[in-house]
Amino acid sequence: MITLEARERRLVLDQLSSSEARLLALVDGLSPEQWNFRERPGRWSIAENIEHLIMFENFIMQSIRNALNGPAEPHKTPQAAQKEPLVLDLANGRSTKFNAREIVRPAGRWPDRAELVAELRKIRAQTVVFAEETQADLRNHFFPHIAFGDLDCYQWLAVLGQHGARHALQIEEIKADPAYPT
Predict the structure, then answer these.
(1) Fewer CB in a 10 Å sphere around the end CB: N or C, the chain?
(2) How many alpha carbons lie under 13 Å from residue 178 in its C-beta half-sphere?
(3) pLDDT digits 0-9 by tens, 64-83
């Protein structure tokens, strides 16, 4: 069994913490108009971005638990190792777009802004506790990413931090739109 190295755990925890702090700062004090503003039809509002982050993190954490309950697949480790740079660079640009799975798309599940932010904090706190405490064999259990193929469960924890940072960039794009309400 392979447990996380201290540097791996620290990297994931740092990414989870920094992306959460950045997201919370970006949504602090927004008016209802700002919260629900769309750059154009078909784009997500800030509220929808936050809802998506919650749904995605819930989905990924459940998928990690499911993968860990299954058999280890160490034969996949070499291919997953080659994907590490993709995973760790996910947030450094938004030129590559991904289509969210239906299950993690926003659907207005939390119409109250305070509840939505509280839910984001709650799921992130649960993820952080898991990342801090797990002794599971994350490197030998896998499930597929929609674009990258099989990633190991450690990489999925890194994806969660990167995903938050990526959506922080999207929120910054929304706020930079000339039509964004002041």
Answers:
(1) C
(2) 0
(3) 999 999 999 999 998 888 88
